[in-house]
Amino acid sequence: MELKRREEDYLEAIYEISKRKGKARTTDLAEYLGIKPASVTEMLQKLAAKGLLEYHRYSGVVLSKKGEEVALSVRERHDTIRELLKYLQVPPDIAQRDACIMEHNLSPITIIQLKKFINFIKNCPKNAPIWLEHFKKYSETGEFDCREECEKI
Amino acid sequence: MELKRREEDYLEAIYEISKRKGKARTTDLAEYLGIKPASVTEMLQKLAAKGLLEYHRYSGVVLSKKGEEVALSVRERHDTIRELLKYLQVPPDIAQRDACIMEHNLSPITIIQLKKFINFIKNCPKNAPIWLEHFKKYSETGEFDCREECEKI
DNA sequence: ATAAATATTTTGGTATGCCTAAACTTGTAA
DNA sequence: TTACAAGTTTAGGCATACCAAAATATTTAT
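Structure tokens for the assembled complex are given below, as produced in the milestone run.
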């Protein structure tokens, strides 16, 4: 079953709220997603019909196994993107927001490449690669700080 | 006036088609966007009402100055993202597709950072930075190819 | 010039995802 | 324990963006 991006948003929100409160209630979700409770109820009923969560009127909701799997995979994509943006010196709050936008429809291949790039940075034998430092400086000042070293490499 | 992502898609499509044919016709757009002509007509009328293009029934459409400005700015964002993905070793066709998805809602700050990163790569004194070569190899083989050099830097 | 083919628009309908207002539950405090 | 406040759901509506089918306009071929 092919999930819509908004459905993924809800599942991710439910996951995050449940992590703290055990279950997610209509009002929590409405606040988290910046919409009205009535709209939340409607979507929860749809997601329940698809077997992605347990819904009983007037109680909160809890993700099903399937729903949780989806939520986790969305969150992983989200974190991947956010981490990339972090390395590209995007301020954390903006990286967070933009990761939300990108997390849904990117090709799995793109996500894999983003991950590889992150791992390349993190696991490089010299573990904070010098070129990343150089990029940070370039991003702030517009100046290349690596003239001599670059000649050598 | 705040434009919707779908409106931006149409303007971009019209721009691309006009570039080749002088103007964009309903059927061209329907094909380009993968939807039916009836839907195109509807949207063209909306965009005309917003002053983004010239619409006369049964002729094609041509972007207004304002419409062209929007199209160019969308295309620039698109190209920026596509270029980044290229450096991250995402295959060209997938980079193209995913740039279409991301081009709309990213924060201007994120776009600026992506551009800086691209310029950092392109304008580095040593103009194909060695670390990018190393990433390419890492992306293909999973192995770091830079052990000794990294020690030195 | 006119009929046939092609292109475009109009009309009426669908799904998504949101809203407000009203109705209904639930929990709590008097 | 009952009444009220807070939370939730239902009902009716709206905007977007699509579709199919029917109506209309344009182009092309004879």
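The longest strand of chain A covers residues 53-55. Chain A touches chain B at residues 85, 88-91, 94-95, 97-98, 101-102, 105-107, 109-110, 113-114, 116-117, 120, 123-126, 129-131, 134-135, 138-139, 144, 146-147, 149-153 (CB under 8 Å). Further analysis is deferred to the final report.
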